[in-house]
Amino acid sequence: MSRSQLDTLIHMVNQIAINNAHYDDAAERIHAHLTKFWARSMKRQIVDYLQQDGSELSPLAREAIERLAQAQTEARSASA
């Protein structure tokens, strides 16, 4: 993945976080959005970024991506 592609994903998830920040369940809403609308490859890339660095993610985006990573881990465990 190129750095520009990663920068785009980071920007997108941070914007989604800004747009949902006013909800009490913002992190869950962001997680649901990523699950529903992002391609599997996009989700994998943003989770990988969080696990390797994650420094450019807003705290709310980070929380949502942590939920996404947890859901991916649980899905892998369930199918094994």
TrEMBL record:
Family matches, as InterPro entries: Formate_DH_dsu
Lineage: superkingdom: Bacteria
Pfam short name (any one): FdsD
Official protein name in the record: Formate dehydrogenase subunit delta
Organism: Billgrantia antri
